Amino acid sequence: MAQTPVQSDSKAAKKRTRSPAYPYVNLEAAITRAKEFYDKEQRNSANINIAAKHWGFVDGSSSGQQTVAALMSFGLMQDEGTGEKRAVKLTQAALRILLDARPDSTERAELIKQAALSPRIHKQLWDKWGTGLPSDAQLKHTLLFDWETPFNENAVDFFIGEYRSTIAFAKLAESDKVVETEVKEGGGTGTQDAYVPKIGDYVQWEHNGVLGLPEPRKVREFSSDGKFAYVEGQHGAVPVAELIREAAPSGSQQLPVVESSLRVQQSPSKNYMLEYVVPLSDGSKAVFQWPSSLSAEDIEDLKDSLKIVERKITRSRETAKTAEPD
Q1: Do 27 and 115 form a contact (C-beta atoms < 8 A)?
Q2: Inter-axis angle of helices 27-41 and 156-170, nearest 10
Q3: Could you count the other beta carbons within 10 Å of the beta carbon of residue 173?
Q4: How far is CA 179 from CA 107, 115, 162, in A?
Q5: Which tens digits make up the pLDDT trace of 206-244?
Q6: Which residues fall within 8 angstroms of residue 176, CB to CB, at 6 or more apart?
Q7: For residues 270 and 263, is the Cβ–Cβ distance under 8 A?
Q8: Are strands 46-47 and 77-80 parallel, antiparallel or unpaired?
Q9: Is the pTM of this model over 0.85?
Q10: Which of 23, 137, 177, 308 has the fewest CB atoms within 10 Å distance of its CB?
Q11: What's the mean per-residue pLDDT of the chain?
């Protein structure tokens, strides 16, 4: 018996609209869940059911599965295996967010911004509106009727709240151009297409996991082969491959641009500190500082002082050897 048009329309009306994929929790809650997982498992993998228990969910709970999916969509968690053998662990990006205790860390802030825009639907909305989102009513109408894959009406309100809170937590601004940073398993960072610094970029220098600059500095020039960079206020070149892109420090004063290692374009009345950082084998570092403007007499005094420093370093090593137990 053929279906009547009325019957067909009724059946279509009952068909559930499937929304685009979106995170089950906002970014702030996702980072909290990542911290709860880290407190139990550190950097190790754990069965997905064990992970769910760490968050207070029972085995097979849909909430546990959705929480894992949310952390994965933000780039905070990765999985391996399937079925009963499926395990999860925190990504290097998550570990850097959780463990970076530096006050006002620009690297941590950048990773949080990147995480906020990792879900595809978040990136789409950001590309379309940035910080200039329409009202909730208009946004809901757009997502229900004009979006390429329309939202289910039962999910759209939750998603709008989740997106707004995530963008606010990440402190995304209209001027932000989030660099898609790939955090390597070895702990270093780079970009998906390998970050290529340019003159004028603010950068940080990371050598064997140790940050070599007290704050982000601006690139002023490169070596002839392009493998090393010179940054403002830093004596000596640093490997380009070890540079991390950073935001400009808030309230920082721009240091004079050095056209070469011997010529400084600067008013004689203005002085600033130059610095040379030497990463050491145990992860610590030695820092040498001196004023950019020095008289000939000052330079001779410093040369003599460096010989004293050399003797003191040698003596400290000999003292350490003597103090070592047989």
Answers
A1: yes
A2: 70
A3: 10
A4: 11, 11, 22
A5: 765 566 777 788 888 877 667 778 888 766 677 887 788
A6: 113
A7: no
A8: unpaired
A9: no
A10: 177
A11: 77
